[in-house]
């Protein structure tokens, strides 16, 4: 059974957006015309929802219903406010541990990271509203349901999220090979947010300039990089190792 809800038709999609539903993906037919279509597009801009513009053949593959040129998928979870999650974590007297995902697009990697994050007791996962893997049925399956047990925060800009974390005394550590600093030399007993990048490009240059620290995993083989979900697991368990000691 899918954990996503498919919506189609301009009125239905507009009402979902106005009611605060979390829209993971939205598809608009190319060349959509009419006052109602313009109203929908304006609503998407207001809510900073970026649609995928596709030909009618793609729309008809998404649904055989009368879609009126728009099909949307809502998230199976409710996203949480980052600042509220930070405050709740501090009120519990726990040392914050967050994971920031910079343009990670593979839902299986996303689900695997969610699963590991929940296992280590991380307090939240932070993703961008644009360019990130959706919380889809595949994400739910790969996370083995962990997606329902850990707060996921969608933010407009990851840089602003990092500045907010810093303002609450939470250091940010980006995983990247573009450094001489070894992962195992970091102090993870401090409040920490681990930043992982995309599968192909890693952490973006803008984010690397924003974080407090950059650290890498030692690599001795001929292959120069690990799968992002495996690397995330290595970072997270080093955090736990240090905190247990």
The side-by-side strand order for the widest beta sheet comes to: 7-6-5-9-8-10
Large-scale geometry: elongated
Number of domains: 2
Query: Helicity level, as a percent range?
Result: 25-40%
Number of helices: 9
Please write the CATH class name of the largest domain. Answer: Alpha Beta
Average predicted confidence as pLDDT: 92
What sequence of helices (H) and strands (E) makes up the elements? EHEHEHEHEHEHEHEEHEH
Please provide the count of β strands. Answer: 10
Class from helix and strand fractions: alpha/beta
Question: How large, in whole angstroms, is the Cα Rg?
Answer: 19 Å
Poorly predicted spans: none
CATH topology of the largest domain: Alpha/beta knot
Determine the strand fraction and express it as a percent band: 15-25%
CATH arch. level architecture of the largest domain:
3-Layer(aba) Sandwich
How does this model look, in words?
This protein is α/β, with parallel strands linked by helices and 245 residues long. β2, α2 and β3 form a beta-alpha-beta unit. It contains 9 helices and 10 strands. 37% of the residues lie in helices and 19% in strands. The model has no long low-confidence stretch (mean pLDDT 92). The chain has 2 domains: 70 residues, 60s Ribosomal Protein L30, Chain: A, CATH 3.30.1330; 163 residues, 3-Layer(aba) Sandwich (Alpha/beta knot). The strands form 2 sheets. A 6-stranded parallel sheet has the order 7-6-5-9-8-10, sandwiched between helices. Strands 1-4-2-3 form a 4-stranded mixed sheet. The radius of gyration is 19 Å and the shape is elongated. It starts with a strand and ends with a helix.
């Amino acid at each position: 059974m899918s954990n996503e809800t498919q919506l189609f038709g301009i009125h239905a999609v507009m009402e979902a957006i106005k009611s605060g539903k979390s829209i993971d993906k939205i598809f608009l037919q190319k060349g959509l015309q009419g006052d109602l279509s313009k109203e929908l597009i304006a609503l998407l801009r207001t809510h900073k929802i970026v649609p995928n513009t596709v030909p009618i053949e793609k729309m008809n593959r998404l649904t055989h219903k009368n879609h009126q040129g728009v099909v949307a998928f809502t998230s199976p979870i409710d996203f949480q406010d980052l600042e509220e999650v930070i405050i709740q974590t501090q009120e519990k007297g726990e040392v914050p541990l967050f994971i920031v995902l910079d343009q990670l697009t593979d839902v299986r990697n996303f689900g695997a990271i969610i699963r590991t994050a929940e296992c280590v007791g991380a307090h939240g996962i932070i993703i961008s509203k644009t360019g990130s893997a959706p919380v889809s049925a595949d994400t739910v399956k790969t996370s083995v349901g962990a997606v329902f047990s850990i707060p996921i925060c969608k933010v407009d800009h990851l840089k602003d999220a990092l500045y907010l974390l810093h303002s609450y005394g939470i250091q940010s550590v980006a995983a990247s090979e573009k450094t001489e600093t070894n992962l195992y030399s970091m102090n993870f007993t401090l409040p920490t947010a681990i930043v992982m990048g995309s599968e192909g490009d890693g952490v973006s240059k803008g984010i690397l300039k924003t974080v407090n620290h950059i650290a890498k995993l030692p690599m001795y083989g001929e292959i120069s990089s690990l799968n992002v979900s495996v690397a995330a697991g290595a970072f997270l368990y080093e955090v736990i190792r240090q905190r247990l000691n």
